[in-house]
Design goal:
Blueprint lengths: L7 E4 L3 H11 L5 E4 L11 E4 L4 H7 L2 H6 L6 E6 L5 E6 L2 H7 L4 E4 H13 L4 E4 L4 E6 L4 E5 L4 E4 L2 E3 L6 H7 L5 E13 L12 E6 L2 E8 L4 E9 L9 H11 L5 H7 L8 E5 L7 E2 L2 E3 L14 H18 L4 H30 L3 H12 L3 H12 L7 H16 L4
Parallel strand pairs: 1-2, 1-11, 2-7, 4-13, 11-18
Antiparallel strand pairs: 3-6, 4-5, 8-9, 9-10, 12-15, 12-16, 13-14, 14-15, 17-18
Bound molecules: flavin-adenine dinucleotide (FAD).
Flavin-adenine dinucleotide (FAD) binds next to helix 1, strand 3 and helix 9.
Length: 415
């Protein structure tokens, strides 16, 4: 396919979609991003990003712009929600930088979106289109046609669906139902730091883990904002409630929690709640000229704060492979799926175990705390190295070896 051919369509202008557009556009491939909301990246709360995204940011040319909007916290702490005892400390300052070669950061999602959008806007090959809801796609063999809610059809060379947890394109491709509900919900709030009266760590990422509930908080925007996420198990998971009902439910759920957590809950805006869910890993996220990416492909629980990081790794990997395949998207999509499957599936599966770990009760909680008390900084880094050491992008020799292996398999010939 020539670089000036039909555009590659990207459905969804979230972190995954914009990263994909930027990665492809910087290599000269035409991309058209179709986003359903009227304004791309208009809302959002805080986001944590591990050191593994930085080699990807280097490829996207946005490391400095991201860093300018970010805070490097002193540590990620896990505290026992009942006693306030420190259970795990992941140092995220100088020693993490030295061990993994890149920092750990927190920033406002809106700021990350703006960095990505600003970078996309200066690449002539990228078109960003808002208020465009894609309802389905037809793969015609030599091109794709996306259908929109307005009744338009949009032609493209191929289609990459970065349309999130409830992806319509996934529903069409895999027909595997709704995401798996886990019975937990999240409420998110940002407040001016000056209004935080609770006695909390203001420069760290803190997770208070309790039986069936947790709270995460950290600073944003040069320490002027404080981001709070309260997550808990509830039987009213699927029901819509009102703020008073939610408030009463929080009081019941967190009744045994440490007083600092209760003070934080008093600051929460309870207007909106997010049901938490994920999916089992699947082997196939690509078919012909259509591929899934990010949460559409491998949605995960937030335990490692890696969902967006995986979407960004997907994006750079996929663009690399499309470029190596000289625009043969169907072939690149197969290689992308093979390259990304085990890493993203491990994130999905280990996030479930980590979710249990955060929410332990009774003797299991005592055992966890006793084990973790003995962990050294090296022990903690060793647990995280499979994530933070990052993802090796495929090279030309990998892809030609993969192509040779495929040809051998197809022709049945020996090496
Ligand atoms: C409470 C919480 C905390 C989290 N914290 C972190 C964290 O700290 N670090 C981290 O790495 N990850 C975190 N995650 C996970 C992260 O938010 C997701 O993994 C990430 O946003 C996935 O990016 P995406 O681009 O695949 O999907 P999304 O961000 O969901 O973007 C999908 C985009 O597609 C658009 N769209 C959807 N359908 C259509 C359609 N039919 N047509 C056109 N456009 C469409 C949507 O409007 C949206 O803009 C967290 C998640 C939650 C719920």
């Amino acid at each position: 396919m020539p670089r000036n051919g039909k555009p590659i369509l990207v459905v969804g202008g979230g972190i995954g979609g914009l990263s994909t557009a930027l990665a492809l556009g910087r290599k000269g491939w035409r991309v058209r991003v179709l986003e359903q909301t009227p304004e791309l990246g208009a809302i959002g709360y805080g986001i944590q990003l591990g050191p593994n995204v930085f080699p990807m940011f280097d490829r996207l040319g946005i490391r400095d712009a991201v860093m300018a909007q970010s805070i490097v916290p002193g540590a990620c702490l896990m505290l026992d929600a009942l006693t306030g005892e420190e259970i795990v400390r992941v140092p995220t300052g100088a020693s993490l930088l030295q061990r993994f070669g890149h920092p750990y950061i927190v920033l406002h999602r809106v700021d990350l979106h703006h960095v990505l959008m600003d970078a996309c806007r200066v690449v002539p090959a990228i078109e960003l289109e808002s208020s465009t809801t894609v309802t389905g796609v037809d793969d015609l063999g030599d091109r794709v046609v996306a259908r929109t809610e307005r009744g338009e059809t949009i032609e493209g060379e191929a289609l990459i669906a970065a349309d999130g947890l409830r992806s319509r394109i996934r529903a069409q491709l895999l027909d595997d139902g709704e995401p798996r509900p886990i019975g937990y919900v999240a409420h998110r709030t940002m407040v001016p730091m000056a209004e935080v009266t609770a006695d909390v760590h203001r420069t760290d990422v803190v997770l208070w883990g309790g039986p069936g509930f947790h709270i995460v908080h950290y600073p944003l925007r040069h320490g002027t904002l404080f981001n709070i996420v309260a997550v808990f198990r509830t039987s009213t998971y699927a029901e819509k409630g009102d703020v008073d009902g939610y408030r009463a439910e929080l009081a019941r759920t967190y009744r045994a929690a440490h007083p600092t957590m209760k003070a934080l809950l008093g600051m929460m805006d309870l207007e909106r709640r997010w049901p938490i869910g994920d999916r089992d890993p699947v082997r196939h996220w690509c078919k012909g000229r259509v591929a899934l990416l990010g949460d559409a492909a491998h949605p995960t629980l937030q335990s490692f704060a890696q969902g967006a990081c995986m979407a960004i790794e997907d994006a750079v990997c996929l663009a690399e492979l499309i470029d190596l395949a000289q625009g043969d998207c169907a072939s690149a999509f197969r290689q992308y799926q093979a390259a990304r499957l085990l890493r993203t599936a491990r994130i999905q599966l280990e996030s479930r175990s980590m979710w249990e770990f955060y929410h332990l009760d009774g003797i299991a909680r005592d055992v966890r705390n006793d084990i973790c008390r003995r962990w050294s900084e090296q022990d903690v880094f060793r647990c995280l190295e499979w994530i933070y050491d990052g993802f090796t992008l495929p090279t030309e020799s990998d892809t030609s070896a993969a192509a040779r292996a495929r040809d051998r398999a197809l022709t049945g010939s020996a090496a």
